[in-house]
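Researcher: Structure for this, please.
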Amino acid sequence: MSLSMSRNGWIAVGLVAALQSAALVWMIAGRISLLKSGREMIVEVIPVDPRDLFRGEYVILGYTFSGTGDTTLPAGTKRGDRVYTTLKQGEGSKWDVASVTPTFPEKVDPGHAVLSGYASDVWNNTEQARVVGRIRYGIETYFVPEGRGRDLETQVREKKIEAVLAVSSSGEAAIKALVVDGKRIHEEPLF
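Model: Predicted structure, token format:
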């Protein structure tokens, strides 16, 4: 009887390991698919003061469309709610918010792009009778090779860096590369 229990235990361990491996492969495959086939957008980067000694060397990137706290959000939006931001291209690599909706827009103009994000800060602007806040898209942190973080932070503050985003048809976004003076640097590896 104990032999049967140990065999069942090994089967359970094997099943758990297989499920965890499948989940990891699914996450990696999704990231690779996004970086290979997502719509490419070059966007202006704005400076943000970064520092976290425990997470490795990285640069925090801000975007004009992330909002400085004055982006109009759909009525009833709460912190953590998923929202969809429709962007229209402005001058050069600047993208401006056309609209923010609680669901993915039914029709998207070919010149626009939709990013899926989460409302990170939300409050009511009683003077203008609207809900405002900031939106996070998961593209605010970019890990860089050791020793390059401070140099890149300086270039971000001097507005010399742009980010190349890969955007899926569902609005998911990933940073594909950073661009300095028209030249791609730090291309994101697929693996």
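Researcher: Any notable elements?
Model: The radius of gyration is 21 Å. Helices lie at 2-37, 149-157.
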